[in-house]
Amino acid sequence: MSTEIRPFRIDIPQADLDDLQERLTRTRWAEELPPGPGEEKEQTGPVPPGWEYGVPLSYVRRLVERWRDGYDWRAWEAKINSYPQFTTEIDGQTVHFLHVRSPEPGATPLILTHGWPNTVVEYLDLIGPLTDPRAHGGDPADAFHVVVPSIPGFGFSGPTRERGWNRHRVARAWAELMRRLGYERYGAHGNDAGALISPEVGRVAPEQVIGVHVTQLFSFPSGDPAEFEGLSAEDMAMLAFLQAFNAEMSAFAQLQATKPQNLAHALADSPAGQLAWIGQLLGEAVDPDVVLTNATIYWLTNTSASSARLYYEDNHIEHPAEPTAAPTGLAAFAYDFKPVRRFAERDHANIVSWNEFERGSHWAAHDAPDLLIGDLRRFFGGLR
């Protein structure tokens, strides 16, 4: 196996873009029921009004029409290419990553792991403020060298080639990637799937990882009634929101964790279908062109099936019973599900920072980047 790190640049053949355009012009729209009486109500739970049956036709049609008539992939390609990109082979798998070194010599290395159905696009707007705070009105002492990899099976890392790419294997790959880049001490941050992977990086590389910062801690009660004794009303409300999410919004996770290939054939053949599938989670909280850029990346790399397999692989392994030990920080945003600290501390034994914010969603890097950047600076500033 080669350990060479090779420069990479996105250069999509025009024929692939022409094919996408032609498919979009032939979109066959799904039918749906007319709006119900609750459509105009304010959102009170995890399901937006008008989305009760799933992603509405109005959302898909609007974005497909922009994708076809107004969206500029080449501009986004150039934006991503404005950052240094590389590929390397780790454990038999191509790993694509952005690597942006700070101009500040004392910067802290930081690996940022995206979620599903996002890509490295999740962190593009954080790179400048994190690597060069001096140029963005910040303190140069808060600078980071930033590494943003594409999870194996996602985007420009390409489809996975064999079974077993679960969160633990990805974490081992990240530890090897940071070793190859020459980083002996570094931090790890993650959102969504990245919030599952990043704590495992701290587990597999305890001497190197100075801290783990996440936007979710996926720690849930076991079902024993005794676990609920003494919980506050706020904690019970958090659990009720989680229960509602699992009851009404988790169909994608169930499918991808059990039979990911069932839907993969449709997604590989229909860009509108691909857009709708990722739109169920990115939704209205994310700028439409960011949604379209992620959809374009999944489409062009044909990684809908392999990205979904991460859920399957994680669902078919035994996870370590011991809690993680790395210093851990949580930034919990307003329109996201929040963990109950009692359960989080059972799975993560060294939580040293816990901050909750009054705005921002599950995709805080997109809709509350200032809050996320500030929390990253504070957390790692105390660990340098």
Description:
By secondary structure, the protein is an alpha/beta fold. It has one domain (57-218, 232-381): Alpha/Beta hydrolase fold, catalytic domain (Rossmann fold). The chain contains 15 helices and 9 strands. A 9-stranded mixed beta sheet has the order 1-2-3-5-4-6-7-8-9, with helices on both faces. A hairpin with a 2-residue loop joins strand 2 and strand 3.
CATH architecture label name: 3-Layer(aba) Sandwich
> Could you say which overall geometry the principal axes of the C-alpha atoms support?
globular
Query: How many structural domains does the protein architecture include?
Result: 1
Flag low-confidence runs.
none
Tell me about the largest β-sheet: 9 strands, mixed
N-to-C CA distance: 34 Å
- Helix segment count? 15
Q: Report the strand count.
A: 9
Which CATH class applies here? Alpha Beta
CATH fold-type name: Rossmann fold
Helix content: 40-55%
* SS-derived structural category: alpha/beta
Strand content: 5-15%
Q: Write the element-wise H/E pattern from the N-terminal end onward.
A: EHHHEEEHEHEHEHHHHHHEHEHH
